[in-house]
């Protein structure tokens, strides 16, 4: 069994990407002095250092890295050591220009950035294995080594390459998955538009076509590209496991849907020894802490609930959005501790010292351009102390109330071209349902379809267009045994090849929902419909309506206008011991809250009374006890009801009855008992 926590790290992880090669060695002394001042426990080193470690083919220079690791070790700082395979040196591309990836339009990328990689390229694979082997041989037993950091953020900035080696590799992948060309024809439905293939050799990547290409091919290419990156991860991981047994291997994920959409993290979660994640606030005017909580819950979920590590976030503004606001005072700590509440074993940053040169010089860091006499630095030091006092939460697990079904592959499929409405955006629905659950103070586990959900009283399916019959049957069994299910529109429509399930919509969910859908009738932009329901409680929908025919389900809300007027809009189906709700239009946050409130009643989930909307309360528990995290995202002091008394770990005070959480503050109580 590989190790599942950083070797020799007895505290929470606190530190960042450390890029000493950007600085003269005299600065390194200042770095470690400041790291000690802030209580840094671990840094990530060498992620982009290939060109320095191997300045010419076969010529290696590890001296500087030896000195960096030695210095860190002398100062008690653990190292998350990168394999630099996301940034091959220029000499590599000079010798192997075909390792540069090609776009669907046929444009070959140039050297001069990072992540310019064709993952099918045999020369790249050999070179990556070689530098990984040399690093592992040299540092396997280094006393500073805590963990390996393979590559960087697979899936960005290039999610797929369309070159000829990838075409050949895709055909091999198809041969393995399907066996014969006839099976490919069947899966992709190539009878349509005369796309039939007589031999696998004629299949290409889904490059630019005059009009919409084959959706099955496009979906499989996403799977292939993801699987190919995973092959390369596994190759590096296996070298590291072999040469450095006992040192866990990770690669930093980006689970937030807005930050990387090309990686099936359900599959990746099983490959890493420790799940690690990078998360950046998308400042688009929405409540950033809700998206943060969602990404953290998703990260924990892809690791099956085990503790994980936030490997990168920002101390203040980033530099890659159109507008990059600074974080408000206290926001960095709230962000960091919200990740910890949801299972992270620490909070790390991009990056330690803000660069003076290069593309990211305006990205915030732990040590800003202004040095130690800055607000950011003072908050960094304060956060270090807070994390130090939370070491006992290590190994505990976040407690969830509900499950949300999520599947990247369904998202890939739904986002292909020529759907009933481009406004039916699965990510938007996932965000909206998540937000409604967050506002009810319910902690979410994400779950993949076809897993056991019996531990959850409530399961929500915001958008699962692609769903196997097995996944539908599992949900039916879940409800029959007493579960409560809420499904939103355009779910359960196609199988794994993007083929519509036989019979009426929604093929995979007809039985559990007790209804069929005769026709979709999406709305035009700006249009909305009114839904009349129980107790005069009307709701509004937009984007989507459809013609629902109840076949066992009762109609709870009905369309009052639009083409679907008079027909069911929101239904409830009692089945066995449980209940399945169906929502056939896009409800706003108010409507979602009403429907989820009804479903929560069915699921016998008591409302969390007395908590303001933006006061986040999450629990972690395990062998060392039970910890209640309360994060006040508002500008008003709050009180959080406590079931039992306990010790507040950040202030050292006793807490009983009601926990005072000042505006903008975080409190963590170790509950007695
Ligand atoms: C990503 C990368 C880092 C850095 C940050 C900036 O997470 O992994 O190298 O570019 O973004 O936000
Ligand atoms: Zn390629």
Give a quick set of tags describing it.
TIM Barrel, binds zinc ion, 9-stranded parallel β-sheet, Rossmann fold, alpha/beta, 673 residues, 20% strand, 10-stranded mixed β-sheet, binds alpha-D-galactopyranose
Q: Would you give an account of this structure?
A:
The chain is of the alpha/beta class. The chain has four domains: 21-250, Glycosidases (TIM Barrel), CATH 3.20.20.80; 255-263 and 277-389, no CATH class; 402-602, Rossmann fold (3-Layer(aba) Sandwich), CATH 3.40.50; 615-671, Immunoglobulin-like (Sandwich). It is built from 17 helices and 29 strands. Strands 12-11-13-14-21-20-19-16-17-22 form a ten-stranded mixed sheet, sandwiched between helices. A hairpin with a 2-residue loop joins strand 20 and strand 21. 50% of the residues are buried. The mean pLDDT is 97. Zinc ion is lined by residues 101, 118, 120, 161, 163, 165-166.
Strand content: 15-25%
Largest sheet: 10 strands, mixed
Strand order of the largest sheet: 12-11-13-14-21-20-19-16-17-22
User: What's the number of structural domains?
Assistant: 4
Helix content: 25-40%
The CATH class of the largest domain: Alpha Beta
Q: Fill in the CATH topology of the largest domain.
A: TIM Barrel
Number of strand segments: 29
- The appropriate CATH architecture of the largest domain is Alpha-Beta Barrel
Bound compounds, each kind once, are: alpha-D-galactopyranose, zinc ion
Instruction: Name the shape in a single word.
Output: globular
* Rounded Rg: 26 Å
